User: Fold this.
Amino acid sequence: MEFGILGPLSLVDSDGRSCAPGALKLKILLANFLVRPNRTMSTHQLIEEIWGGFPPRTATTALQVYISNIRKILGEGGSRTEQSSILTRPPGYVFELAGHGSDLHRFEQERDEAGRLEAAGDTEGAARLLRTALRRWRGRALADVRCTPRLTAAARRLDELYIASYEKSIELELMMGRDAELVGELYALAGEYPSRERVHEFLMVALYNTGRPGEALQAYMSIRNALSEQSGLAPSHRLRGLQQAILSRSIDVLSIRPQSPMRSIA
Assistant:
């Protein structure tokens, strides 16, 4: 089976057929296992995720039925066996990912390899692999099950993983001098993340380096206004310094340097 959480929950069998559960409670159960593979989740945690603070008296029995249903969807029958992906492990259950594929797992492998390529000095290879990894995203992570505390928290973590990886890919490409190619993409990204400073930094640099200093300063004004309206904060010292560099035409300041190496996000 190939599991997908980098977008709406998906499940594709070896024949390429979609077999994701349709019922919301089953989706919530499966999604909780997928964001915490190979780790035990207690019966209490699963019940709280599925029913919130008002579970029925039959919740434990109903959970067992849902577990059986998920096993059937996975083609493992409804009973618990040593070959099952969902194993009973006190105080609850554990989902064993071995033998299955996961878009998140593949993304993280590619992202980590891109980090190794960057560390070895292969900027172009790192950027190319990171772009490949980012194409695994089909939209907002867990888009159809962001309705429980744990899944909402997991989705926010994945949101941050996505944008941080996207920023890194742009950083690498700007280091290779691809400013002109990235301007349109950066404008779109700045519109989606109006208060994300690193995105606006990249946009300002790309605009300046393509002969558009006026637009670069407008990009600074946009994020300054967004930060002021949202939180009453001013742009960071780094971004204010970039504005001054544009005003004074300090070319050597307007080069992209790696902010930090890529790290795995556990």
About this structure: DSSP finds ten helices and six strands in the chain.
